[in-house]
């Protein structure tokens, strides 16, 4: 899907990786000065270093294919961490209020995304993917903003983070379904693939729950053993998932859940976080490498329409969720504003879409996702930092 | 006073402590160990960040706030100023002390010096708030509380007669070798 004159092959794999990470880091550093979150900027870095910009300018461009495996490692580690923080006990404890807020979130935003997908003429599969892209808020961007703005100590932090946890769980199931559907054919053809994918994930989930505590001692006592063995397990399991047509990301999620249930949780999180940070950047930049700026420009109108519809939809669903947590109107509005940014998971869905044999889905959906994430991560962050003004505008500000 | 605890998934834990009135102190403990401390005036006001501490620093500050902190320097002369003129001091009982081999009551500690023995450490056994009938032997460490003058009087009477009248000098060489540092540290609190 590369546009322009790709002069790949000029750079060896090592240099390609280095250049992509360096460009992404530079763009993110520049953007941070003006308060733009890093995730979309890493993508932008990839776009700049890729065939569509650097290649079109006659510079040595990086062929996305050289980094595909490393990008997959990034996805697995991102979801691995999600699983690590995910605790069934915690979810059960928060079930009552959470399920209300989470259900409102899902029932408003997913259908809005699906409707937008149909409106843009992307067909059933495209609409299903756009539904996921629009539905899932960015845990990374939102959590960082909550901490940076000090909202983390305010009551809205609980419904916001609770909703993110619920979304993460939904997206694990969603990715399993989407992975099977994207592989192509009619929904009937997809049924066996869905069955295999779900069965495989069920087996991993069960193993995580039952076996992980007993396996924990084998993960090693020294830090070195711990990191090497944990990454080995995560890659083997997610690679097997990929080979049976299940989502490698979801497999990574369940490996994380398994490790999270052991006493090793904190140490693993501590040691593997730097690894995740590096590979996640590779993944985000890889999405950028795959992105054709002409295609993104071509979906500018759909992106704008989606932003205008789905931004307010998130604010409304979040505000309702806040009310379910007995928050004041002002704090409920803030809950909604905080949930606006979209990011890494929408990009994972975009990466999934590139595998579709349907050319419209494979090119338009990723381009839409990249444009949409760039806009929404920025708009959402600005919305949070301007919450005071928005509160006054809506008329719920304190005296 | 109630402390509220809640989970912040992916971030850590939050504790809210009622401060009286509607105000609350909010402590966010990140999974990295970092603590952020906020104050919120009432239920609907925004939390105002007061400060943040690293894990290690937070633990140290915590024990100071708890009143349990003292510097475990290897010396018999460590003191802790409580505010006002009150002072807690540690002394190792020398063999020639009037206290060695006596009970606290028989040595008449309180009547003679005004200071009170609040703990006795014998080998590794610590007796907090000892009975007046409790015995003290040479080599024990006694923890004494009183005003500075009372604690000095105690030191002069039972630990080191030469210390009488000069203990208020800063940098006074009290114990062999290490006394200086401890005294300075104490006076500087």
Automatic annotation (TrEMBL), chain A:
Membrane-spanning parts: 12-29, 41-62, 68-86, 107-140, 160-182, 194-212, 232-261, 361-383
Entry annotated with the keyword Transmembrane: yes
Membrane topology: Multi-pass membrane protein
Subcellular location: Membrane
A single GO cellular-component term on record: membrane
Domain of life: Archaea
Domain Cation/H+ exchanger transmembrane stretches: 24-382
Keyword Cell division set for record: no
Sorted UniProt keywords: Membrane, Transmembrane, Transmembrane helix, Transport
InterPro entries: Cation/H_exchanger_TM (IPR006153), Na+/solute_symporter_sf (IPR038770)
Family affiliation: Belongs to the monovalent cation:proton antiporter 2 (CPA2) transporter (TC 2.A.37) family.
Official protein name in the record: Cation:proton antiporter
Species: Halobaculum lipolyticum
Phylogenetic classification of the source organism: Archaea, Methanobacteriati, Methanobacteriota, Stenosarchaea group, Halobacteria
From TrEMBL, chain B:
Biased composition annotated in UniProt, kind: Acidic residues: 180-189
InterPro entries listed in its UniProt record: AAE_transporter (IPR050144), KhtT (IPR026278), KhtT-like_N (IPR058776), RCK_C (IPR006037), RCK_C_sf (IPR036721)
UniProt region (Disordered), positions on chain: 163-189
Superkingdom of this protein's organism: Archaea
Domain RCK C-terminal: 76-160
PANTHER family: K(+)_H(+) ANTIPORTER SUBUNIT KHTT
Name this protein carries in UniProt: Cation:proton antiporter regulatory subunit
Species whose genome carries this gene: Halobaculum lipolyticum
């Amino acid at each position: 899907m590369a546009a322009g004159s790709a002069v790949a092959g000029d750079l060896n794999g090592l240099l390609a990786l280095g250049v992509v990470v360096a460009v992404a880091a530079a763009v993110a550093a520049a953007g941070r000065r003006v308060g733009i979150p890093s995730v979309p900027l890493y993508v932008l870095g990839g776009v700049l270093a890729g065939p569509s910009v650097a290649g079109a300018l006659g510079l040595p461009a990086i062929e996305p294919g050289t980094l595909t495996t490393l990008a997959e490692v990034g996805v697995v580690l991102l979801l691995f961490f999600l699983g690590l923080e995910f605790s069934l006990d915690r979810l059960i404890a928060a079930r009552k209020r959470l399920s209300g807020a989470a259900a409102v979130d899902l029932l408003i935003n997913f259908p809005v995304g699906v409707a937008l997908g149909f409106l843009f003429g992307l067909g059933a599969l495209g609409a299903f993917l756009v539904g996921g892209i629009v539905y899932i808020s960015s845990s990374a961007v939102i959590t960082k903003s909550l901490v940076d703005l000090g909202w983390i100590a305010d009551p809205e932090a609980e419904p916001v983070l609770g909703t993110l946890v619920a979304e993460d769980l939904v997206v694990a199931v969603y990715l399993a379904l989407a992975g099977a559907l994207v592989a192509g054919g009619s929904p009937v053809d997809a049924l066996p693939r869905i069955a295999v994918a779900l069965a495989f994930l069920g087996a991993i989930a069960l193993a995580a729950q039952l076996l992980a505590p007993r396996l924990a001692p084998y993960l090693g006592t020294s830090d070195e053993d711990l990191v090497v063995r944990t990454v080995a397990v995560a890659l083997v399991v997610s690679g097997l998932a990929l080979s049976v047509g299940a989502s490698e990301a979801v497999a990574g999620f369940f490996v994380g859940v398994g490790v999270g249930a052991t006493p090793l949780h904190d140490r693993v999180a501590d040691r593997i976080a730097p690894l995740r940070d590096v590979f996640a950047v590779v993944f985000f930049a890889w999405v950028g490498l795959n992105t054709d700026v002409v295609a993104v420009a071509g979906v500018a109108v759909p992106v704008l329409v989606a932003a205008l519809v789905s931004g307010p939809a998130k604010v409304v669903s979040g505000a309702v969720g806040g009310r379910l947590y007995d928050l004041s109107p002002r704090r409920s509005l803030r809950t909604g504003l905080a949930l606006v940014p979209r990011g890494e998971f929408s990009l994972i869905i975009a990466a999934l879409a590139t595998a579709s044999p349907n050319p419209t889905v494979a090119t338009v959906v990723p381009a839409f996702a990249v444009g949409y994430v760039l806009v929404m991560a920025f708009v959402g962050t600005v919305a949070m930092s301007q919450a005071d003004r928005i509160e006054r505008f809506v008329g719920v500000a304190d005296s | 006073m109630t402390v509220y605890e809640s989970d912040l998934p992916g971030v850590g834990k939050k504790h809210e402590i009622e401060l009286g009135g509607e105000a609350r102190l909010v402590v966010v403990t990140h999974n990295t160990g970092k603590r952020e401390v906020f104050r919120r005036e009432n239920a609907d006001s925004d939390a105002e960040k007061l400060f943040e501490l690293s894990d290690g620093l937070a633990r140290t500050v915590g024990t100071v706030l708890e009143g349990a902190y003292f510097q475990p320097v290897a010396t018999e002369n460590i003191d802790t100023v409580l505010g006002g003129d009150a002072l807690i001091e540690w002394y190792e009982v020398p063999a020639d002390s009037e206290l060695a081999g006596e009970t606290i009551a028989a040595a008449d500690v309180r009547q003679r010096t005004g200071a009170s023995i609040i703990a006795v450490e014998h080998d590794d056994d610590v007796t907090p708030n000892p009975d007046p009938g409790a015995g003290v032997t040479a080599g024990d460490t006694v923890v004494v509380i009183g005003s500075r003058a009372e604690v000095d009087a105690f030191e002069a009477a039972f630990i080191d007669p030469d210390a009488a009248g000069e203990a208020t000098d800063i940098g006074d060489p009290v114990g062999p070798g290490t006394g200086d540092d401890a005294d300075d540290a104490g006076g500087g609190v």
